[in-house]
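Design review, sub-item: ligand-bound model
Attendees: FS, YL, KQ
YL presented the inputs for the glyceraldehyde-3-phosphate complex:
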Amino acid sequence: MKNPIIVGNWKLNGSKNMIHEFFTILLKKMNIHTNCKIIITPPMIYLTLVKHYLNKSPIKLGAQNVDIHSSGAFTGEVSPEMLKDIGVEYVIIGHSERRIYHKENEKCIIKKFSATKNAGLKPILCIGENEKENKTNKTKETCILQINTIIDALGIKSLKNTIIAYEPIWAIGKGIFPSPTKVQEIHKHIRLYIEKKDQNISKKISIQYGGSINLKNITDFLSQDDIDGVLIGSASLCAKTFLNIIKHVEKLTSTKIKH
Ligand SMILES: O=C[C@H](O)COP(=O)(O)O
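KQ shared the predicted structure:
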C-alpha cells in the first residue's frame, strides 16, 4: 500500500476552540511529507475555518454533505460549486447516518454523486449492510446493489477517482467491528466486480473501511491487501489520537510495503 487514505469524519462535532487546539497539536507534530492521503471532513459551518489551518499542510478538506443544485431558491443548502469555491476537494455521499436520519434514498444519492462529480469534486461513496443483512449473509449482495445504483444510473466510468467507503452500519460508533479478513473478502469482491466491468476504472478507485477504527485495530485492517484506507469517526476528534493513528500508519507502510 503506497498512500493509505485516512479520512477523519468529525460528524456533528467541533467548535472554534476545538479546531484551534486540534490543528495546533496536529500540525506541530505531523510529518508534512507524509505518505498518507489525509482528509478531514468538519461540519459545514467550519469548512472555511479548517481550510485556513490546512493551508500549509498536506491535509485535504472534505465535506460531509452537499446539495444537488448549483444555485437557486433552496434555503439552507450548500452547492458543490460553493464547496469547490472554498477549497473543498472531497464529499462524503451516502453515509448511513444520512440514509437513516435524513431519509436519503438511492435516487438522492445518485443525484448527489452526479452533482459532486460535475463540479470536479471527488466523492467518498459510503456503502454497507445493516445488522439484519449482516446476520443473514447479505453483505456482498447489499454492497453490490448500492454500487450498481450508481453504475446503472451514471455508467461505470462515473466511478473514476471515487473512494468507496465500506461501512457496516452495525459497526459504526459501537466499538464492534467485523474481522479484518472478512472486510478483506468484501473489498476484494467489490474490486473484482468493478474490474469485471472495467479494468481501467477498477485501478482508479480506492476502497476504504469505516466502523469503530482505533489505534489498536488499524494495523490489522490496513495489513489486508484490498483495504486502501480508513474512514474514522470518533477516533478522529482527538488530535493526539488522530496524530498517533497517522504516525502508526506511516510506520506500517514504511516497514510493510504491499502491492
Ligand atoms: O464516518 C465515519 C464512520 O461512520 C465511522 O465512525 P466511527 O469510527 O465513530 O465508528
